[in-house]
Design a protein that fits this description.
Length: 213
């Protein structure tokens, strides 16, 4: 395929890619960013063409990785599974992953911290439940411990209960206790945390009313 570049043409279906014609025939396509260093009349060896194509594969994979990250942060294990699913060769996958690490897009410590912070605001969980979620994401134990270690279980359980108690406050005490306890248990909290929080929520919901006895 070695020869002289005779034309560079932006592709009609993808304006981010450029077709490179060598000796009057279509040779290969590259991303527009890679085509910036090319010009008509330039001689290309087989090795140079192979290097351009390899770089194009890496750029395309990196762009896909960034789109994958645009929906939410990802653990390194999630990113590896995604890139493997795209058929990326092991060496290319390692190169893309290293670039993502250097740019800060993939960082399991930050991912774990962000995951826990998000859960604490929107869907409070126990430390045990949070750790299980992060393990499912493939996060290393050290990053998990650092992220969940500072979680205040009592405060988290209280926030979770407050979001639910409005639906349960009209119930009699036994049903209120059972349903709120089950709700908190499903979020990983233990009895020693659940019991006092449930009673506290009942007392707040029924302030000024007759005690449940």
């Amino acid at each position: 395929m070695a020869g002289t570049i005779t034309r560079l043409q932006v592709q009609a279906r993808d304006r981010e890619r450029v077709s490179v014609y060598v000796d009057g025939k279509f040779g290969f396509g590259v991303r527009a960013a890679s085509a910036g260093s090319l010009q008509t009349g330039q001689m290309l060896t087989d090795e140079e063409i192979a290097a351009l194509q390899e770089a194009d594969v890496l750029e395309a994979a990196y762009a896909k990785a960034l789109r994958f990250l645009s929906y939410r942060p990802r653990s390194e294990a999630e990113m590896v599974r995604y890139l493997e699913g795209k058929g990326l060769a092991p060496a290319d996958l390692a190169a893309v992953l290293e670039r993502l690490r250097r740019s800060g897009w993939v960082d399991d410590h930050t991912f774990a911290q962000t995951w826990v912070e998000n859960r604490e605001v929107f869907r409070p969980r126990s430390r045990r439940a949070l750790a299980a979620e992060l393990r499912q994401k493939g996060v290393p134990a050290e990053s998990i411990q650092g992220a969940v270690g500072q979680v205040d279980e009592e405060a988290a359980a209280r926030r979770a209960a407050q979001g639910r108690v409005r639906r349960l406050r009209i119930l009699p005490w036994p049903e209120f206790r059972n349903r709120l306890s089950s709700y908190l248990a499903r979020r990983g909290f233990g009895y020693e945390v659940i019991a006092p929080i449930v009673r506290e929520m009942w007392q707040e919901a029924n302030a000024g009313k007759e005690s449940e006895g």
